[in-house]
Structures are given as structure tokens and as C-alpha cells.
Amino acid sequence: MNEALLRSLTPKVLGILVRRGTDFAAAEDAVQDALVEAVRVWPADPPRDPKGWLITVAWRRFLDATRADAARRRREDLVDEEPPPGPAAAVDDTLQLYFLCAHPSLTPSSAVALTLRAVGGLTTRQIAQAYLVPEATMAQRISRAKRTVSGVRFDQPGDVATVLRVLYLVFNEGYSGDVDLAAEAIRLARQLTAAIDHPEVAGLLALMLLHHARRATRTAPDGSLVPLAEQDRGRWDTGSIAEGVEILQAALARDRLGEFQAQAAIAALHADAPTAEETDWVQIVEWYDELTRLTDSPVVRLNRAVAVGEADGPRAGLAALAALDDSSPTSSGRGHPLPRHTAVAAYLHERDGDLPTAARLYAEAARKAPNLAERDHLTRQAARLNTRLRG
Fold first, then answer.
1. 95 and 10 in one domain?
2. Do residues 108 and 159 share a domain?
3. By the 8 A CB rule, do 129 and 80 touch?
4. Which residues lie closer than 8 Å to 329 by C-beta, 6 or more apart?
5. Rounded CA gap, 184 and 174, in Å?
6. Cβ–Cβ < 8 Å for 9, 49
7. What is the pTM of this model?
8. Which pLDDT score is estimated for 81?
9. What is the CA radius of gyration of the chain?
10. 210 with 274, same domain?
11. Cys-Cys crosslink for 122: which of 126, 238, 327, 333, Cβ 3.0 to 4.6 Å?
């Protein structure tokens, strides 16, 4: 069974059903039923036209479900609309599905789940395993999301920026369960790049490829984090780096800079450095200046402080950090702790030679760490400095 083929056809088949006027939730259920039937039938009897086969079976599943509660006249109209056998139409509504699944009315978590289900072709169980939640919980989340967007017109313009944010959320989940979400996000970004000519879409794909190229070196065999400066650059995926740089250069040449292109440019500079010491930090600071102008994000300004510390020395980095509050604003006007602010302060104080302050801040950052791997890494940094201080 060619699972990749099934997943690539899922959004196309779903788009055709929705374009015919089918309710999105009912269409998605029908497509899932057709996929299950394909898994059962295709190994022994593969169709000559897989897409046409899925459309036919999904449409019939939809009709079967509709007959239970639709009026007789409407049922007869739907039967009359059933497409004749033969090759499926070449219309591809994948892009509209991206827009629908990333609709502003959905929460980020719901948009991610619906995108993976409707566009990615993953099962509810696979998505639940990837996000470490019970299958029933994920099924409810997807059902609510489908109900939310069922009344949205399929042909209305969508927001590319929202779609890109959803895909980046998927990418940053990495790997868990039996689904590699980082690889899945790259696949979906490639699909989106083929569907729309937009420099920021290309920028996101480039960013994903450049980050993914370093994946094998980010953790040690025992699961501990390996900082960028200590990673084995000889193990980085040069093919992904070359592809990412090529895509980025083509996007930047269009002179329509966006945040994902700027982030990709920073990642490309890291990838281009043969050693950590040869990193072009001055140019990285310049790109962070562009990114700050585009987003005014506290996280971007925090990362910029690190880059300033590398380019102009730790005291310059601490000065940049001092201008940034350790909390970021919310829509209510209140602040919430800025992730890794204390860890950055610890690193810069260590670079400046203030080991007691750095050790204290590393320990404090460990207590605030968002996950176990970061907590263990920061705890080891504090222990390392405390050992030096005692010696």
C-alpha cells in the first residue's frame, strides 16, 4: 500500500467534494471512509486511476450518509450529480483547503489538527499520538474544528500568513508517536509552494529545510541537548542546506521580504559557517534588525541580544537584554514570562566572566524551563560553573 500516494490525494479528493457543495465535515468523513476502503482493497486490486477511485467511493459514502436524513428530492439530485466513470478532473483545490483549515475562527491547536487530518491525510490516532493526547480528545478537537468551518465559503480568499504559522507550529513539534511532524510539515510546505507563488511560502520551506538539516546533531545519544556551537557540523545534511539556500535566494531576489525569509537568512548564515567561531554574527545582527522591524517580537529581540553579544561582546549583549523586559505582552496588556530570558542572561554573564551570577541564573532558568531536556541542560550548566567556583 502506497501511503504517501493516499496522503497526497487526500486534499485533492476532499476539495472536489466540497466544491460540489458538500458540507466540509460530511465530506471529510466520507474521504476518510474512502481511505479506509482503499487500504482494504488496493493491495489486491489496485485501481488504474487512484484519484478517480477515491472520488467515486467518497461520493458514494457521502450519499449513503445523506440518505439517512435528507429529503427525497435532494437525494435524487445528488444521485444525478454523481460523476461518470473515467479519469478525474485535474482541478486541485489543495490551496483552498489550506486556507479553510487555517481559518481565523479556529484556535491554533484546532487549525493544526484539522490541517494534518484534511490536508495531510493523517488519521486521528496518528495525530493524537504525535501530540501525546488521548485519541478521543483529538477526535473531539477535530470534530469541533470541522463544525466551525462547515459554514465557510470554500472559494473565499484565505490568509497565507495564517497558513504559514500553522505549518510552522506543526514543524516545531518535531517527532513523536509514529509520525514525523517535522518531515510532514516540510511535505505540506512543498505542496503549498507548488500551489501558490509567494516568497514567504518559499521562505518557510527554506527555513524548515535549513533547521531540519541539523536535526541529527541537536541531541546526544543520551537525549541531552547539544547547543549549536557544539554540534558536529560534519553530520549536517548538506543536501537540505543547499536546497534551502537555493530556495531562499530565489525568494529574496523578489524583494518582498517577510519574517520567514529573514529567519531563513539567519539559519543560512549559521549553516554556512564551517565552525562556530567563523559565524558571521555581524550580518546575523543585521538580519535580526530586519526581523525586529517586521515583527517587533520580544522573542526576536531576545535572540538579537544573543547575536549582539557574539558580534560586539557580552556587555553589549547584556545592554541589549536590559532593554528587553523579561515578560512579553498579552492581548490583555499583562505580561507573561518570556521563554529563555533568564537562560540568555546566564549565558551572557558567563561570557563576561561573572561566573557566580551566571551559575545562579542558570539554576533559575532551569526551574523555568519549558521542557525536561532544557531543564537538564541548564541544570548541568549551573553545576559546571559551581564546580569551577568551588575549585
1. no
2. yes
3. no
4. 298, 335
5. 9
6. no
7. 0.79
8. 52
9. 25
10. yes
11. 126
